[in-house]
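User: Before I run my own analysis I want an independent prediction to cross-check against. Here's the chain; please return only the structure tokens and, at the end, one sentence I can use as a sanity check.
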Amino acid sequence: MKPSKVREMSDVELENELSNLKSQLFKLRFQSATNQLDNPLQIKSVRKDIARVKTIMRERELKAQNA
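Assistant: Structure tokens:
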């Protein structure tokens, strides 16, 4: 997921995306623990996507406080 795509999302969409990513990460970790994960780099990718979404949410929060 590209940061420009994340910035275009509304606040509600960001919250939904964060929730989806967290559940996806849980499933990937579960698969990893049971040795059923095909591509372990998926975990890294999902974690970075979570960080991107949280960063954009925090930027908007700070921007709202300063305005």
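Sanity check: The CA atoms of residues 28 and 43 lie 6 Å apart.
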